[in-house]
Specification:
- By secondary structure, this protein is α+β, with helices and mostly antiparallel strands.
- It folds into 3 domains: 159 residues, D-amino Acid Aminotransferase, Chain A, domain 1, CATH 3.30.470.20; 85 residues, ATP-grasp fold, A domain (Dna Ligase, domain 1, 2-Layer Sandwich); 151 residues, Rossmann fold, CATH 3.40.50.261.
């Protein structure tokens, strides 16, 4: 589950990680109230207005702006709330901004000693350990640092059993070129950041930038936090942080229907049972020269109701030009699945105007093929896996 910056920062703060303070707002009036409260609490008179969307690169897209007065807070919030923010990490149509974070300006005017670092904590699947990744070259261009000067990005694997040691944290502060009080503050920052990652059951923390101010404060200025979905059962308080508006609406609907669906960019809709078979089907479509429009595992019960729901969800994607049904009938017999497919098709005949390629293998597959072939509907049946994928290409190129 991905979180907004303001939610991520709240979690960091709850574990004692020092952050750039801020208050979230949904309209310009709330933004003004937030700025006034922030002024009172922190003494700041300059603010930074930050679009809250699930995408990075907001600064580059005009979603992060400094306001030097309460009037400017109102004006800039008015601009940003409701805009479609396009960043290097969104699609061309961008993401609608529903909220802004009004934060204290921590880049003190004229502070030439401000340093921006990069720091993330994540799981290193290769070593089965947690990993802290960090760099002196933080800020908005970390991607080009990774590409052009990868030696400036350090990593350290942390044993999940013993956790982060003081020595390891010191080495990070050393490598960031810090000494004196700033060094101590950074050690404390890293220790509490790692603890927060661990206790919140997150799978990613990306803090870019972490800054050092001239008075040696270490602050998280940005926060990308991803909570491990599998841990949510023990974090009931995090469940309410989910913002459904940021999620793909088709995926949300599929989830409600109990279907395991992931939206993709291609034009071949896939309906498959079993995650492994679904992956293999996508690979085969690719090999045959096509491009899958989705990953969809309909699960064990491929009855007509479920098949119809799956068809309807696949068809919501306007890019879909053909559908490949690839189902292995073991316990659920192929003839039953075939009847389900035919019934579903008949039910929604007016809504389907693209070809459907059906491959059913397993128990009673011969009978199933007959049912499909004699239905008189716009089906193409196949028995072999590769044959089915080739058929998809053939149908697409003849249309
Ligand atoms: P991102 O572009 O989505 O990664 O959003 P960030 O939260 O990282 O903000 C982008 C950039 O805005 C940062 O790298 C900073 O350079 C700048 N920024 C963030 N907070 C402040 C602030 O308090 N004052 C000033 N002057 N700039 C800030
Ligand atoms: Mn950032």
């Amino acid at each position: 589950m991905n979180l907004h910056e303001y939610q991520g920062k709240e979690i960091l703060n709850s574990f004692g990680v020092t952050i750039q303070r801020g208050i979230v707002a949904s309209d310009p009036e709330e933004a003004v109230m937030a700025a006034k409260k922030l002024s009172k609490d922190t003494g700041t008179s300059w603010f930074v207005i930050k679009a809250q969307v699930h995408a990075g690169g907001r600064g580059k897209g005009g979603g992060v702006k400094v306001a030097k007065s309460i009037d400017e807070v109102k004006e800039i919030s008015n601009q940003i709330i409701g805009m479609n923010l396009v960043t290097p990490q969104t699609s061309a149509s961008g993401k609608k901004v529903h909220q802004v974070l009004i934060a204290e300006d921590v880049y003190y005017p004229g502070d030439s000693e401000i340093q921006e670092f990069y720091m993330s904590v994540l799981l290193n699947r290769k070593t089965s350990k947690n990993m802290i990744m960090y760099s002196t070259e933080g800020g908005v261009d970390i991607e080009s640092v990774a590409e052009n000067t990868p030696h400036l990005i350090h990593t350290v694997d942390i044993d999940p059993e013993s956790g982060l040691s003081n020595e390891e944290a010191c080495k990070i502060a050393d490598n960031l070129g810090l000494n004196g009080n700033a060094h101590n503050q950074m050690v404390e920052f890293v220790m509490s950041l790692y603890n927060a990652y661990n206790k919140s059951d997150s799978s990613l923390f990306e803090i870019n930038p972490v800054i050092k101010t001239s008075d040696d404060k270490i602050l998280a200025v940005d926060a990308k936090v991803t909570i491990d979905d599998n841990s949510l059962f023990r974090h009931e308080d995090y469940l309410k942080l989910r913002d459904i508006r940021e999620e793909n609406p088709i995926e949300v609907e599929a989830k409600k229907a109990g279907l395991n669906y992931v939206d993709l960019d291609g034009n071949v809709g896939c309906m498959v049972n079993g995650a492994g078979l679904a992956m293999a089907t996508m690979d085969l479509i690719k090999q045959a020269g096509g491009d899958p429009a989705n990953f969809l595992d309909v699960g064990g019960t491929a009855d007509s109701e479920r098949v119809e729901t799956a068809f309807r969800i696949i068809l919501k994607d306007p890019n879909v030009k053909a559908i490949l049904v690839n189902i292995f009938g073991g316990i659920v017999r192929c003839d039953r699945v075939a009847n389900g497919i035919v019934d579903a098709y008949k039910n929604m005949k007016d809504d389907i105007n693209i070809p459907i390629i059906v491959r059913l293998q397993g128990t009673n597959s011969e009978i199933a093929k007959q049912i499909i072939d004699s239905s008189g509907l716009n089906f193409f049946s196949a028995t072999e896996f590769k044959g089915a994928a080739d058929k998809v290409q053939e149908v697409l190129s003849s249309n």
